[in-house]
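Can't paste images in this forum, so I'm doing it all in text. The chain is below; anyone willing to post the predicted structure tokens underneath?
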Amino acid sequence: MTGRTYVARLDGRRMRDVDAVFQQFYDGLRLADHFGWNWDALADCLRDLKWLSADHYVLIIDAADQALPGDASGRRLLFETLFRAGQYWSYTQRPEGIELGRLVVVMSCDAASVPSLQGTNGNDRPSAFVGPDRP
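Text version of the structure:
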């Protein structure tokens, strides 16, 4: 991979509610002040990261299994939003010989949590998680 890479590291332990999720993304991705603080606005931002002035983007969410405890539908929306952003960046048409930027999402969690989180991306396909967490 050549070019500039922007890495944002977010903490699932700090994502106790939906507002805290948006705050983590706002801070980590340096979102604009006019960010809408809702799932659609987050999805839009993840599809267009050009304000970061990078060629490639890596989004790491540590302790992803601890995000939105007690809010299964919110967690599902979070993971679905991330999954769809990854799909968007993976399936963009690339003219011959032109390399476009990429978004890589890494969601780390405790190994014991992986079975309960698989499939929470709004798809029938299992999600990929990296575990165990490292402090």
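Residues 123-135 have pLDDT under 50 and may be disordered. Strands lie at 5-11, 56-62, 102-107.
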